[in-house]
Amino acid sequence: MIGWPKALTLAAAAASLGAFAFTAAPAEASPISGLTATFYTLAPNHPDVEHGIDGAAVTGLVNPTLSAGGLPTISALGASYGGPSGPITDVNAAGELQWWTPHGGIVSFVSSNTVSLPYNEHLFPNGSSDGADGYTSARLDGTFSLPSAGSITINLGSDDDAWVFVDGNLVVDNGGVHADIVAPTKTSSLSAGTHRIDVFYADRHTVQSQLTLDADVSFMPLSVPEPASMALLGAGILGLGFVRRQRRST
Question: How far apart are CA 217 and CA 185, in angstroms?
Answer without folding.
Answer: 13
